[in-house]
Amino acid sequence: MTNITGLIPFLQACITPVALISGVGILVLTLTNRLGRIVDKIRLLRSELEKESVMREDDKKFQIKILYKRAKLIRTSIALITLSIICSSLIIPVLAVSILGGFDIQVFGYLFFSISIVSFIFSAIFFFSDVTLSLKAIKLEIKEHI
Questions:
Q1: Do residues 13 and 98 make contact, with C-beta atoms less than 8 angstroms apart?
Q2: CA–CA separation, 96 vs 50, rounded Å?
């Protein structure tokens, strides 16, 4: 019975990091899909530029530059969100050692949680920067129609 009483607080404490990991996983999926679309669009524009008769060549080159900047923003956002997932995952063993083992290492749990949240915030900032740049690229494509 003593083992179960120690296990209950551990399981309760693990709910937050597990929920954070699950929520962040959806964002990772979104970011990787955006990165894939950016890469596909760059390849399409590059193949159009290799044709002999290229219309709006300067616009296409500028779009590629914007898309490359977007890809770097998304890469940074993915790296930060991955750091967030790693830190959230490290909270669980820290909790296990702290609660079940009786060691006072909760400061590491707080540290990992703080790093996880800060990484998530910065990832969101880079993600929003990508969205802003995508509007700039779209404006190039539709400038003749607005």
A1: no
A2: 58
Sequence-distant (6+) residues with CB within 8 A of 47 are none
Measure Cα distances from 44 to 14, 40, 80, 105 in Å. Answer: 45, 6, 28, 52
Helices of type H across 1-146: 2-49, 57-95, 106-142
pLDDT the model gives residue 32: 95
Record the pTM: 0.81
Among positive and negative, which fits the CA dihedral 111, 85, 126, 46? positive
- CA–CA separation, 17 and 26 (whole Å): 15
Cα–Cα distance between 38 and 50 in angstroms, integer? 19
| pLDDT one-digit tens code per residue, 117-144 | 999 999 999 999 999 988 877 887 787 7
How many Cβ atoms from other residues are within 10 Å of residue 38's Cβ? 24
CA distance 119 to 117: 5
Tokens of 48: 């159009």
